[in-house]
Specification:
signal
Length: 203
């Protein structure tokens, strides 16, 4: 995944309206926008094949990145889209799972999945990895005036001699997707991300 550092950890979330519209899984049909404390934002939409399209936009001015994931945590593709939405050459990555990602475990406290996946790059290069995705109960999160149950989701990609990547998400069962909280490459300090608002996406 493309990792952009935040400017700092926010200590407070944005206050919501007096009567908040709290989202459920149906909201992903139109799409939701997650706003972060550093002005980055992410738009998440459910696609017709049951996957989620996750578009990350960066306040630092870097090009946006597009991801495809099942349940927002089992990632199968990433790339930088061009003006027509098609992947720009050299930016694509496909993650090949040993099973249909739709059959991977439904997020729940205490559930963990580990499997041997394969990274397939644009030039055909294949890199084996061991992916682990685990879920544990965590305190709820308040976004735009709504409290959402959270499963802390720990994702670890192990590339052997090439190192590893750890990601932490807040999976929201009520909506069925996950919000990025931190990322760390092997040998580097972690970056933290603080979601501060959740909104219905606009076209």
């Amino acid at each position: 995944m493309k990792i952009i550092p935040t400017t700092g950890l926010a200590l407070a979330v944005l206050a919501g309206p007096a009567v908040a519209d709290c989202f459920d899984q149906s909201a992903l049909t139109r799409g939701l926008t997650v706003r972060y404390d550093n002005s980055d934002f992410t738009t998440i939409r459910r696609t017709g094949d049951g996957y989620q399209q996750i578009d990350e936009f960066y306040d630092a001015g870097d090009s946006m990145m597009r991801f495809r994931a099942h349940r927002g945590v089992y990632f199968v593709e990433e790339y930088e889209p061009g003006p027509d939405g098609a992947p720009i050459d050299g930016t694509g990555l496909i993650i090949e799972f040993p099973v249909d990602p739709a059959t991977l475990p439904t997020p729940a406290a205490g559930v963990e999945w580990t499997g041997e996946t394969v990274n397939i790059f644009d030039d055909g290069t294949r890199r084996p990895e061991v992916a682990t995705v685990g879920f544990v109960a965590a305190p709820s999160i308040n976004l735009s005036g709504c409290d959402y149950e959270v499963l802390r989701t720990n994702v670890h990609y192990d590339w052997g001699d090439e190192g590893w990547l750890r990601l932490r998400y807040a999976y929201l069962p009520a909506i069925g997707t996950a919000l990025l909280l931190s990322s760390q490459f092997d040998g580097e300090d972690p970056f933290t991300y603080t979601p501060v608002a959740l909104e219905q996406a606009t076209k």
